[in-house]
Amino acid sequence: MATTAFARGALLLVPGIVCILTSAPVRAEEQTLPLPQVIEYSLQNNGDLKAFRDEKGIRDAGKVRAGLLPNPTLDFEAATGALTGSSSESALSLGISQEFLLAGKRDKRLAIAERELEIYRWQLADRERVIREEVKSAFYDVLLAEQRIALTDRSIALSRQLLDITRERLAAGDIPELEMNLAKVELARSEGARIENAKALNQNQSKLLNLMSLPTEKQFAISGNLDSATNLTKTLADLKQLAHGERPDVKALEAEKRRGEADSILAEAEGVPNLTAGLAVNREATSIEVGGIEAKDKDYIIGLRLSMPIPVFDRNQAGVQEARAKRSSAESRLLATRRNVNREVETAYASYLNSEKILSMYKADIIPQLEENLKLTQDAYSLGEVGILAVIQEQKKFFEVSDGYLTALHARQLALVKLESAVATELTGGAQ
What we know:
Blueprint: H1 2-20, E1 31-34, H2 35-45, H3 47-54, H4 56-67, E2 73-81, E3 86-100, H5 105-172, H6 177-212, E4 220-223, H7 236-246, H8 248-270, E5 275-290, E6 293-307, H9 317-382, H10 388-423
Parallel strand pairs: 1-4
Antiparallel strand pairs: 2-3, 3-5, 5-6
């Protein structure tokens, strides 16, 4: 009678384990955060992202600086003849000069500042893409740890039920004491596995909290499903094309290449010297003594001054060479990044397809057959046809394979996360 009750309770465990694979435990008193909300919160509050966003002020200041004109120069000069015995003679000069940028240097510097802002915007988008990938991976790590804990809880419940049955049967004299000891060992093993899974959950939650910059005292629970995957319909060629059109790191390098071209144009313009124009007012006081009579005279002179360096030795050859080298470097890095993007998409796509194949094997062959084997072993034990060791071994195999199925689901989600990050697009819709 007791063994029949045990078998019935064990059979109820099978659909319960299947439910574990598609749901995560949520405590009612905690705030529940789905994946989109976790991502949104992380993008808004991640410390590294916030610090990088603050750097926009540096680029804005650079644009302001590029648009400023040179300050005018005020010149003042005074001279007296008192020290040379001509105290009645003196001169005053007041002038102002302004440097004028030739060859359109100001517009060219503004163009470079615009490219810098463009590079910054794409770099920020790329950091958000990387953070999004890290948050998704950490989210699914937490989800996997939670579901493993739920799986071990089921295993502990079944092991305790088995231990109760063996105690009753031992008291009735139906089994030796060894079977009860084996049930105790199985219970201890399940409880040890739960401790390890709880440790992993704590570590994964801490990582997710760090990415979200969430206070440690903030309590929350995540809600998600490891078995919710996108039906991928795009071909590898489509994904590569999508990646080259959407990847912010590629766009940042393209903007950097354009900045290199703007640098070269400015460097050539810098070879043209600037013109400095000045206007000065001079007052000269002189005295002439004729026949014992001293005659004083004051003259006011207005003068215009133009000056320009003669580009004989320095025509900014070094600046032109440096700008060309930077442009060449940006082009090389852009080509290398495009090749790397192709390989990254190919690797992520192959990983996703392999994970789908493994999951299909679990769903079509392994899990259904394992459930049937467990049911047959439990029925045989209830009829006294097999010993407890066979039941323990079959239960252990069932939970190990169920854990493997969870791992396969987790691997499929991570492969999808990698693929979405590689193409910088949510394959469920919307660019990252």
